[in-house]
User: Which sequence fits this backbone?
């Protein structure tokens, strides 16, 4: 029994490969080059609009993940993240996050939006109470 258990545990144990960081760093620039070529198709004024290049960015992400996995590295890892951050700085450094200024609706609309659910709740409670008192007729 001990021999079978030892064999079972040994079979379940997988040999872990060490991350080949130099291979990964050698291969990642090809992903960046491909992304750069695809981004040339997009007007630089539209680089901050993700919908204009989402497929290109998805291909870039998959490429970096594939190259990291081929080098027996997990993804994302600090080196891959550093490379991706460099690509972001190259293409998206001028994209600022505009803060949306939220405003309350006018008082008339706000009052209506508050009173409608309150009135419906009161009406439903009244209907339930009335129906429960009239159970002999229903």
Assistant:
């Amino acid at each position: 029994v001990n021999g079978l258990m030892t064999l079972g545990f040994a079979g379940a144990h997988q040999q872990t490969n060490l991350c080949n960081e130099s291979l990964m760093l050698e291969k990642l620039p090809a992903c960046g080059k491909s992304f750069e070529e695809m981004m040339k198709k997009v007007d630089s004024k539209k680089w901050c609009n993700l919908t204009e290049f989402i497929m290109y960015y998805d291909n870039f992400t998959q490429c970096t993940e594939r190259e990291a996995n081929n080098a027996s590295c997990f993804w994302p890892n600090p080196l891959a993240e550093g490379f991706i951050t460099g690509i972001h700085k190259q293409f998206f450094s001028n994209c600022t996050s505009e803060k949306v200024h939220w405003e309350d609706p006018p008082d008339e609309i706000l009052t209506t939006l508050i009173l409608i659910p309150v009135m419906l709740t009161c009406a439903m409670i009244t209907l339930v109470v009335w129906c429960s008192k009239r159970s002999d007729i229903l």
